[in-house]
Amino acid sequence: MSTPPLDLVLVSTPIGHLGSGRGGGVELTLTSLLRGLAARGHRITLVAPEGSVAPDDCPGLLLHTAGGNDQPSWQHAQRAASVQIPCDGVLPHLWDLALSLGEDADAVINFSYDWLPLWLTPHAKSSLFHLVSMGSVSRAMDEVISQLARWDQRRMSFHTQRQASDFSLTSPPSIVGNGFDLTRYQLQLNLHGPLGWAGRIAPEKGLEDAAAVAAALGETLLVWGLVEDAGYAQSVEAAVPPGTLDWRGFQPTHRLQQELGCCRALLNTPKWNEAYGNVVVEAMACGVPVVAYDRGGPGELIQDGVTGWLVPPDDLEALTMASRKVDQIDRQACRRWVEQNASHTVFAQRVEAWIRQGLSAGNGTLAPCR
Ligand code: UDP
Q: Which atom in ligand 1 lies closest to the alpha carbon of residue 250?
């Protein structure tokens, strides 16, 4: 590397420990990025809730953990809800650590979708950066994001253009996409497997629509993911003939990719403006075409007719018809797209470029930050 390595502090989500699955896609995003940045020679400190497991293949990675109560997640709050931080909350404990470790670092990168770290940014001695992990779900978050954009928008980056378009920004946003360690995903060429669906089992993920398609086709749908809302899971099950859903539980990546790779297609049916859609790209990494609503991140990640089919949001008939023609998609093209656009190597390069840009003074040199 011609430029000197950076000292970076990465701060995990305060919803569940890393490895619990409760943090959703952020957990895998962070793990991939740790690997990608470590491979580029950066010195990395990870700040995460107690019980977190850091990847063992990041030489020199330092892990600092904080205890305390989980932060409630914004996606299940009312849009007008006020900011809440529970007593003995893990979020402020994580930021006590991050701010103090950040004083000796070049930058602190936040992965949580929370008001506190965004608000702190103009007031902190350390240079704080935020990879915003969701679209707009709350007025308080929209407001703090647009305030930070007015102060210095370079401190924020987004996964997709569609996600960023939810917010009031002052200039074209930095988009870093996402990245996956592709040595962990095997291309499978079987064209005749079942249909699959993966994600948190929660209303914003729209499992009921994929279940309806499987029922219309008289097929079984394989479902992977953490049941976040048991009542919702039961209502989805009750709406389709018995046996339509085959619940496979929450699987670690090595199992998930093995089972997912056997599918002839993944159905992706978000009801919200999905920021990215990790499972879409993980499926494609295994050669699995994706049939999805043209909404949020998946609409930007899937090339219609090349790596899957995009259909108008909430159109069950179009989703069913598209699911019948997944044999027209070349599974190798799916894998190729991921190799070219979403490896953890390219993701780490994009994140590094964003951080260096944000640290630079007007003349392009690194601004003093210690
Ligand atoms: N996931 C997993 N095991 C499972 C099902 C899902 O590890 O059995 C992970 C998957 O790898 C992905 C995350 O759960 O990283 C879901 O992320 P996505 O971006 O699709 O949605 P989010 O939960 O962030 O809204």
A: 8
Report the distance separating Cα 177 and Cα 352, nearest Å: 13
pLDDT band of residue 363 (cuts 50, 70, 90) is very low
Second CATH level (architecture) for the domain 7-179+344-359: 3-Layer(aba) Sandwich (3.40)
Question: pLDDT band at residue 268, thresholds of 50, 70 and 90?
Answer: very high
Q: 282 CA to middle of ligand 1, Å?
A: 9
Distance 274 CA to ligand 1 centre (A): 12
Distance 278 CA to ligand 1 centre (A): 6
| Alpha carbon of 86 to ligand 1 centroid (Å) | 26
Whole-prediction pTM: 0.95
Identify the residues whose C-beta falls under 6 Å from ligand 1: 21, 24-25, 28, 198-200, 224-225, 250-251, 253, 256, 276-279, 282
Rounded average pLDDT over 327-345: 98
Ligand 1 atom 5: the closest Cα is on which residue? Answer: 225
Annotated domain spans of the chain: 7-179+344-359, 182-341
Q: Average pLDDT of 236-245?
A: 98
The yes-or-no answer to whether 7-179+344-359 and 182-341 have a common fold is yes
Q: What's the pLDDT tens digit per position in 296-312? A: 999 999 999 999 999 99
Q: Whose CA is nearest to atom 8 of ligand 1?
A: 250
Report the CATH architecture of 182-341. 3-Layer(aba) Sandwich (3.40)
Phi, psi of 129, rounded to the nearest 5 degrees: -125, 155
Helix runs in 12-76, H state only = 25-39
Cβ-based neighbour number of residue 85 at 10 Å: 17
